Amino acid sequence: RHCTDTVCCVIFIVVILGYIALGIVAWVHGDPRKVIYPTDSYGQFCGQKDTTNENKTILFYFNILKCASPVVLINLQCPTTQLCVSKCPDRFATYIDVQASYRYKPDQWNYFRQFCKPGFNNPRKSVAQVLRDEDCPSMIIPSRPFLKRCFPDFSTKNGVLTVANQTTFRDGRGKTRNVTDLREAANGINNVLDARSVGVKIFEDYAISWYWILIGLFIAMIVSLLFLVLLRFTAGVLFWIFIFGVIGIIGYGIWHCYWEYDHLKGIPGSDLTVYDIGFQTDFRVYLQLRQTWLAFMILLCIVEVIIILMLIFLRNRIRIAIALLKEGSRAIGYIMSTLFYPIVTFILIAICISYWAVTAVFLATSGEPVYKVMANQTLCKYANLTCDPETFNTTNVTKLCPGAQCTFAFYGGESLYHKYIFIFQLANAFVFLWLVNFAIALGQCTLAGAFASYYWASRKPADIPLWPLFSSFGRAIRYHTGSLAFGALILAIVQLIRVILEYLDHKLKGTQNSFTRFLLCCLKCCFWCLEKFLKFINRNAYIMIAIYGKNFCTSAKEAFFLLMRNVVRVAVLDKVTDFLLFLGKILVAGGVGVLAFFFFTQRMPVFAQEAPILNYYWVPLLTVIVGSYLVAHGFFSVYAMCVDTLFLCFCEDLERNDGSTAKPYFMSASLHRILGKKELSPKKA
């Protein structure tokens, strides 16, 4: 053994160090609170602990009517003063009325004042100056919090839109407005906040249910282990039970359809055809027709006949696939530690995902508060220009543009770091893909080395190394990190290109250029096929690396031509085995998914009180289902890798040896019988 693909190994280590540096820089500049908390006109978070806004969790707009302006869509910020408040207003009121009656109705003034700028308590100041300086809002309207922001409390009365049972209101500037104006303003904000609101809700759901998600994934891990243990002893029995179970279920379906068909005989209207009743939105109508059940029965009969014919003609191939699983079970029986190696791969991938997600969030929230001039006058030349709130009042902007304010716009910056945030996000995604593919490659090479040591042992299990899995892991890390990183790099590049193509396709969906859409579709299809081909080549290349210790390119070439010389065996044995394992993945993911569905929808009386209250129950549900499938995939990949390794070793054994005394086969006697090879010089196994 010697180190392979050293240059790629050095590059890989340098990239990892750079990735760590990128994460540190992002953590220094980023602040995830910018995603969670709304921000007032001074760049302060609403509800932030240990600040003056700790108990003020809701954002209040001075003049929500301005939020209907196109400026909202341009700057993603409503051009009016925004303050953090503890609660939204619950009544109609104008500053003019409150100021006029503050001497004999101080309660109204004290209530209104909580929606003014902090520290303002000067009812003697003229109304014009107050409204010009935006010390207080010109009006308040009944509102309720939505997405931690005060929105008008709309309701419908007799089909008419109202707010607090009123259809009109005074805007505090001498005009009477219709509540539909408020609807337009609220929609202006909602158009900006829709995407963010969904993201925030999903984030909240994950924050509430993350430990239940982990419990679901742990259950999937246990179920996968149990399934592998059962497969270790009863691979054939489980498969035939599943096959006959499917046949039995379809048979019951045929009987039930016939029973329904016969039961509807003589019932008025049941002899009508689907064509007679036409299309109906209530599909239960079709279940009252005999023709519907007859069609179902014929369809199920066809499916039943096809399955039975496939079992008859493919019985030998199915027997071979089951036999290979049993041979793999023997290898796993001697190297039981391989069953737990997917936990290592799972932990490595979880670390990669966590690091990527945290870094992406911190990169997205990197930036300093950027303030811009918000002017009431559309012709103000300073509008939308950046400004400094500390020196804004000393400039001429307020004189040239009366009512203009220097308000918080967004988080950003003009530094070199902020200019290349997008590039950093792209690099974050690329290195993430590279690391995930490397973790998978390391697992495949480690398992292949362990199972190859089983196959090439002359006397099984006496000649199997004491710690085959740990020895294989050590060889992969010590000698072949560069080769594994090289294969992972090629795959990561193709996957990144696919991600970019998906992004471009999403952006160009609205275009009418048919040629562009066709070209993108072709590129996506080609790169999808290329990714599948590279995964297949990489997998077998890692097996050859584990056996012979050669570099990636040489191993990939030898594996490819070896498989091409045995292409029929590959198609028959490998793919049928993959299909059997795929059924197991569906079983695990489906079972855990059903359990998660009943739990998160609070349909399990035992755990009804424990189930979290969610915005979207499908967020943790889909996470559990996808995660369970990935967990099952990780565990079942042990069997798949075992079968692939034994098959490749078998093909290599056939080409290197002839079964004579000088060149005896290394395969076991059972594998001889499975694959129809006669041993010229039998040896003890």
UniProtKB/TrEMBL annotation:
Keywords, sorted A to Z: Antiport, Cell membrane, Glycoprotein, Membrane, Transmembrane, Transmembrane helix, Transport
Its localization reads: Cell membrane
Q: Where is the signal peptide?
A: none
- Keyword set includes Glycosyltransferase: no
Under PANTHER family, the record lists: CHOLINE TRANSPORTER-LIKE (SLC FAMILY 44) (PTHR12385), CHOLINE TRANSPORTER-LIKE PROTEIN 5 (PTHR12385:SF42)
Q: What does this protein do?
A: Choline transporter. Choline/H+ antiporter.
In Swiss-Prot or TrEMBL terms, this protein is called: Choline transporter-like protein
Q: What is the lineage of its organism?
A: Eukaryota, Metazoa, Chordata, Craniata, Vertebrata
